[in-house]
Design goal:
Length: about 150
């Protein structure tokens, strides 16, 4: 299981970083609304990770699939947040200032506030998408075999 969620978590983070750098290259990095695509990236990666794990197991347990989704997204979120911290503190120190001026927020908390927002958004997206995808991937109890689980 470690192999599945670590591989997919790293790939999600790499694609998020590439997407951010592409936005920076074409000059659209100042528009936070474009981070909606991050949800699509998380969604595709988490679904593929959980689908891969479920295809390896004969008996796919809800808890294990949920764990794969949460850990894949958690790894991706941590890697992307670390990248953004390095980017905002070392490479482009004016990035946080520009975003905060656009949002009309206090400058003193600029970079830290953005990093906290990125981390919370990543974990929240991971949780919601994992719960949603597990509804698609779990085995239904509405079968002859599932009837034995009723009162």
């Amino acid at each position: 299981m470690f192999e599945v969620y670590s591989r997919y978590g790293i790939w999600i983070a790499v694609i998020l970083i590439a997407y951010f750098l592409l936005l920076k290259l074409i000059g659209l990095d100042q528009y936070p609304i474009l981070s909606v695509v991050n949800g699509l990236i998380y969604g595709a990666g988490l679904y593929m990770a959980m689908k891969k794990y479920s295809s390896r197991k004969n008996k796919f347990k809800y808890e294990k699939g949920f764990e794969v989704g949460l850990l894949s997204g958690g790894i991706a979120t941590i890697i992307f947040t670390v990248f953004m911290a390095i980017y905002m503190y070392q490479i482009d120190t004016e990035f946080a200032t520009a975003i905060m001026e656009r949002w009309d927020l206090e400058f003193a908390l600029g970079t830290l506030m953005l990093l906290l927002t990125i981390m919370i958004m990543g974990f929240a997206t991971t949780l919601v998408l994992t719960l949603s995808f597990m509804q698609l991937l779990k085995k239904s109890w509405n079968t002859k075999d599932g009837n034995r689980n009723t009162l």
